[in-house]
C-alpha cells in the first residue's frame, strides 16, 4: 500500500510540473512565431513568421500547385492591430515591421484563399 501511495504522489507531482511548464511556455514572449506548410485546394504554401524586440516579419512562399494569384502577408500585434496587408508575387510575399509587438503572422495564398496563421 505504501509503495502505491508513493508512486501516485510521484505521478501527481510530475503531472503538476508538466502543467506548469506548459503554462510558462504558452505565456512566454514570442521570439519565433512559427513556420509550417499549408495545403489549400490550389496548392501548398510555406508560411513563416518570427522576430523579437519590436522587429517582426512574416513570409508566404509557394511550394507547389496551380494557383497563379498573388500571395500576401500581414502581422497582428498583441493589442489587436493588424498591419497593412502586403501583396507580393505569385511565388512569394514578405513584410517586416519595426516597433510592433507581434503575436502572429497572417498569410494568404490566392486572394480567394482563407487566411492561415503562424
Structure, explained:
By secondary structure, the protein is an alpha+beta fold. 22% of the residues lie in helices and 44% in strands. The chain contains 1 helix and 8 strands. The strands form 2 sheets. Strands 1-2-3-6 form a 4-stranded antiparallel β-sheet, with no helix packed on it. A hairpin with an 8-residue loop joins strand 4 and strand 5. The chain starts with a helix and ends with a strand.
What's this model, at a glance?
This protein has 118 residues and is of the alpha+beta class. It contains one helix and eight strands; from the N terminus they run αββββββββ.
Let me know the largest β-sheet.
4 strands, antiparallel
Overall shape: it is elongated
Q: What is the first-to-last residue Cα distance?
A: 49 Å
Low-confidence stretches: 4-32
The amount of beta strand, in percent, is: 35-45%
Please state how the strands of the largest beta sheet are arranged side by side.
1-2-3-6
Helical run tally: 1
Average pLDDT level: 78
> What would you report as the Rg, rounded to the nearest angstrom?
20 Å
Amino acid at each position: 500500500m505504501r509503495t502505491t501511495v508513493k508512486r501516485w504522489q510521484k505521478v501527481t507531482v510530475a503531472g503538476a510540473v508538466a502543467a506548469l511548464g506548459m503554462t510558462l511556455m504558452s505565456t512566454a514572449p514570442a521570439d519565433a512565431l512559427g513556420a509550417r506548410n499549408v495545403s489549400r485546394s490550389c496548392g501548398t504554401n510555406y508560411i513563416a513568421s518570427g522576430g523579437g524586440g519590436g522587429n517582426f516579419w512574416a513570409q508566404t512562399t509557394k511550394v507547389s500547385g496551380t494557383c497563379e494569384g498573388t500571395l500576401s502577408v500581414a502581422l497582428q500585434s498583441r493589442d489587436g492591430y493588424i498591419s497593412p496587408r502586403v501583396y507580393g508575387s505569385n511565388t512569394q510575399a514578405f513584410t517586416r515591421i519595426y516597433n510592433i509587438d507581434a503575436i502572429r503572422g497572417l498569410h494568404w495564398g490566392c486572394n480567394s484563399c482563407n487566411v492561415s496563421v503562424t
